[in-house]
Specification:
It is a single chain. With 210 residues, the protein is of the alpha/beta class. It has two domains: 7-162, Nucleotidyltransferase, domain 5, CATH 3.30.420; 166-198, no CATH class. Helices cover 38% and strands 16% of the residues. The chain contains eight helices and five strands. It has helices spanning 7-12, 61-74, 84-90, 92-104, 136-139, 141-162, 170-173, 179-188, and strands spanning 18-25, 34-41, 76-82, 112-117, 129-133. A five-stranded mixed β-sheet has the order 3-2-1-4-5. The chain is globular and about 55 Å long. Mean pLDDT is 93; it is low at 205-210.
Amino acid sequence: MSSPTLEIERSLLEKYDRVIGIDEVGRGALAGPVAVGAFTLDQKHLDGMPTDLRDSKLVPEKQRAQLAHDVAEWGHAAVGYSSVEIIENYGINRALQLAALDALNSIDLAGAVVLLDGSHNWLGDCGADVVVKVKADRDCGSVSAGAIAAKVARDELMVRLAGKFPEYGWAGNKGYSSASHILALQSLGPTEHHRLSWLSKILSADQALF
């Protein structure tokens, strides 16, 4: 299992005052919002990265909350959201951008550069320079930190929603397309927290949407 480093961040800090690592979670879920985590790193944080930090997808669920706590102790992590309504009305790419801007709203962008996971700049003009790197969530500590903060925050939100809609298993599947989630959708129909436009292949043509 590969571990992230701060190699790219160290290089960027030769030019910028701060690096803001950004990653999203929930892009492919059938229910719930998308979340974007942003972690701010400067020179004083270069020696404090948690030793067990990994890409959030590689961290066992039982270990994520503690790791998110360690990340919060390391530096400043912020999480922004875009609701199902925003996803439905504006599309997933715009929803991700708005969630990222929500996260960045509490961060001073002066002298900062954003390090963004992915193959293209889906963030757009955010008020700071943007550097894009494929697999940054795996390879770059600041982006891994942003990802784990967003993952834990969104998972906690889905567990709370599961208390109101237990039939869909969100406490376990977190809104993603597990077999039990799909069966619940097919038998009960969608809730207000489902992304209706994403369900055409799951729901039969004659099933009412509400």
